[in-house]
Design brief:
The complex is a heterodimer of chains A (about 270) and B (about 180).
Chain A lengths: L4 H8 L2 E8 L12 E6 L4 H4 L1 H8 L11 E4 L2 E2 L6 H8 L7 E6 L14 H20 L2 H5 L2 H10 L9 H25 L42 H8 L13 E2 L2 E2 L8
Parallel strand pairs in A: 1-5
Antiparallel strand pairs in A: 1-2, 3-4, 3-5, 6-7
Helix pairs in contact in A: 7-8
Chain B lengths: L8 H18 L4 E2 L10 E8 L6 E11 L4 E10 L7 H7 L2 H8 L6 E5 L6 E5 L4 H14 L6 H9 L10 H8 L2
Antiparallel strand pairs in B: 1-2, 2-3, 3-4, 4-6, 5-6
Classes of the chains: A alpha+beta (about 270), B alpha+beta (about 180).
């Protein structure tokens, strides 16, 4: 695990410079300035946009405000997808900053889940962790943990959101490192496996593509082949998503923005 | 730790096929749908029921999918008024019978929540699947003891369906015990 630490840190500390603009048809009492934010890749939109909400609600009347939702170039953004995933999927080939439109009306019921509170985000996050452990350890590790360990995982994710001011960025560095350590103190247990097994029961993965109707590909996949060879990411893609490797398309799979070629050695 | 019932995808398909056969016989409306991109297989049912509070007609749509992570079937459903307005979680909650509410409120993993349908990508309500093995294992063990044929899907749906307004006609049980 230690040689992967750089990758873990790069993913954890990854940020996306984003510009939030209020949808032009929203009713405001005066002009709404765009709001700039560095979004953490490993978090969720509704968790990190309190400041965005406050900023725009300052120029609106209470009666014109319903549930907030976000959109990029006409596509409603699914808050339950990690921010980094949304960006990589929809906007990675566009120039920065990422331009997101903010809405307070006409919630798209057919496209987006409601997010009534931060508890809903926590429930969703824990549900994902739980499902991953069902695949890795038949849920044994997650079920043996105490409630406080689950909380610690969740608290580790409460990233400090910084603006573009350099002073704020400096002072939050130490806090961010603490959160990383806090998270991994618990997460490392979820990443362990018995020495004789050579890997998890199944690899928890999802492959997202914009070219398919289906939201993602998720299948059972063992980390070790029948002959004992360790599977690579290439093996996985060949088995569950061969079109991703077709030479004529030449897409490069991205994992949280990092070109997967560099870390395709071992799953 | 006792061995839980292994319920693989092929077994799921087999039980669903038998279930559908009976549904077609009694005109119950379940269909088998495949997504051309592979393995998740939803069934579908349209039921129109009345809501007592507002005296409006509500349309429910139920899908049975297979979860390869938990290796159990999962019930997805959504509901809307006839004009297309979807029901919110609190409306769904109001429709759940009192006797089920206590159980559902006991833990976040036993409850109804809004999730993305893994094939359609649209919001649906779901009963969390991680406890399914826990309540299905004794049912299956018991039927083995008395040497009785059981269709997992029929038994499971008859247990979880009523919580969210889905009631299976009794004839499904008769059909299950006849199937080889």
């Amino acid at each position: 695990m230690t040689d992967d630490k750089d990758v873990l840190r790069d993913v954890w500390f990854g940020r996306i410079p984003t510009c939030f603009t209020l949808y032009q048809d929203e009713i405001t009492e005066r002009e709404a300035e765009p709001y700039y934010l560095l979004l953490p890749r490993v978090s969720y939109l509704t968790l990190v946009t309190d400041k965005v909400k406050k900023h725009f609600q300052k120029v609106m009347r209470q009666e014109d405000i319903s549930e907030i939702w976000f959109e990029y170039e006409g596509t409603p953004l699914k808050w339950h997808y990690p921010i980094g995933l949304l960006f990589d999927l929809l906007a990675s080939s566009s120039a920065l900053p990422w331009n997101i439109t903010v809405h307070f009306k006409s919630f798209p019921e057919k496209d987006l889940l409601h997010c009534p509170s931060k508890d809903a985000v926590e429930a969703h996050f824990m549900s994902c962790v739980k499902e991953a452990d069902a695949l890795k350890h038949k849920s044994q590790v997650i079920n043996e943990m105490q409630k406080k360990d689950h909380k610690q995982l969740w608290m580790g994710l409460q990233n400090v959101v910084s603006t573009w001011s350099s002073q704020e960025i400096e002072t939050t560095q130490r806090v961010k490192q603490d959160r990383f350590d806090q998270f991994w103190a618990i997460n490392r247990k979820l990443m362990e496996y018995p020495a004789e097994e050579n890997g998890f029961r199944y690899i928890p993965f999802r492959i997202y593509q914009t070219t398919t109707e289906r939201p993602f590909i998720q299948k059972l996949f063992r980390p070790v082949a029948a002959d004992g060879q360790l599977h690579t990411l290439g093996d996985l893609l060949r088995e569950v998503c061969p079109s991703a490797l077709a030479p004529e398309d030449n897409p490069t799979p991205k994992r949280q923005g990092l070109d997967v070629q560099a870390c395709a050695q071992k799953v | 730790m006792e061995e839980n019932e292994f319920f693989g995808e092929k077994t799921f398909q087999r039980y669903c096929a038998e279930f559908i056969k009976h549904s077609q016989q009694i005109g119950d409306g379940w269909e088998w749908r495949t997504s051309k991109e592979a393995l998740e297989l939803p069934l579908d049912d349209f039921e129109v029921t009345e809501s007592t509070a507002t005296n409006e007609v509500i349309k429910y749509e139920y899908h049975v999918l297979y979860s390869c992570s938990y290796q159990v079937p999962v019930l997805y459903f959504r509901a809307s008024f006839l004009d297309g307005r979807p029901l919110a979680l609190k409306d769904i909650w109001e429709g759940v019978h009192e006797c089920y509410k206590t159980r559902l409120l006991q833990g976040p993993w036993d409850t109804i929540s809004q999730q993305e349908h893994p094939i359609l990508g649209q919001p649906f309500f779901v009963l969390h699947p991680c406890k399914t093995n826990e309540f299905m294992t004794p049912v299956l063990k018991n039927s083995r003891k008395i040497n009785r044929n059981v269709n997992y899907i029929t038994s499971w749906l008859s247990l979880v369906g009523p919580v969210v307004g889905l009631h299976l006609p009794l004839s499904y049980a008769g059909a299950a015990s006849q199937d080889e």
